[in-house]
Protein: 1,4-dihydroxy-2-naphthoate octaprenyltransferase
Organism: Actinomadura algeriensis
Amino acid sequence: MTYRPTTIAAPSAPVRGGGLAAYARLAKLDIYDYYLGLPLVWALLAPAVRWDAGTFGLLGLVLLAEVVVVAAMVGFDDVTGFRDGSDAANYGSDAARRRLHRKPLVAGTLTEPQALRFAWAATAIGTALWAAAVAAAPHRPVWAAVLAAVCVAASVQYSWGLKISYRGFQEVFLIGLGIGWTLVPYALLTGAAPAFVIVQAVAFGAGPMLFGLYSNTGDADGDRAAGRITVATLVSARTHRTFVAAATGALVLLIAGSAAAGIAPWWFPAVLLPVVAMRLAHLVIGFRGEILRARRIAIHAHRVTVALLVAANLVASGIAS
């Protein structure tokens, strides 16, 4: 989940005793796009549930659980990337541009044992927090509890254990985690997951997948050398551009088709018209070879999607009530 392959030698003597800042960078605390599903969940709730004090408490607990699980995931990912050389290959002469300091093992601000201890501790704490969230929830559908457990297990094994991101499942994971982390808290608060909520969860989950595809485009050589299987490493650059176009088109079809099928209200595609324009823009820019710029637009499109859906759901529920 990085940008452009080049070559750089890993530091020969990592600095020991990394401080809190190094651990914060290891945890990638500045990456918050998956957590934006929680404001969306809150906006999707009925007003009586939305403003209940217990709702805020549960969403806060889920947020903490998500942050800690992501810290475990990216911690293991950094260890694996450091060991197989993919992080060193994907961060190079443009290290300042690509913020090499965000990879503390390659930058030498943490050692591998320190990163491993951090990742295992985060795994234990994150699992406990998710278990506490399920136990404290007003509703506990079995499918939601199972989905929460699957999300935790898949996150921890993204680049560790089963190494699912190395086995050809990275793209599925990127969209699946966003869907899961939207549906689970909604179900824990309401006991169900209506069709329109599922549509919005998929639209949300597609955001990290789409900007992840641009990362994979830039990382194809380094990932291929490290044995990581993604669509970008298996096909030509031209075919991968077609794949990105197909994924983008599928999202646009979901937005328009769900309203046409009566699953989503009429306002759903109308509200997301700016997002559709942004999606088409990053697609054209990506086809021109400006991968980093296309990725930035894709990230902004994801955040705009959340902002528009939060506002629209609040307005719609206000009218309905």
Notes: The radius of gyration is 20 Å. The chain has one domain: 24-320.
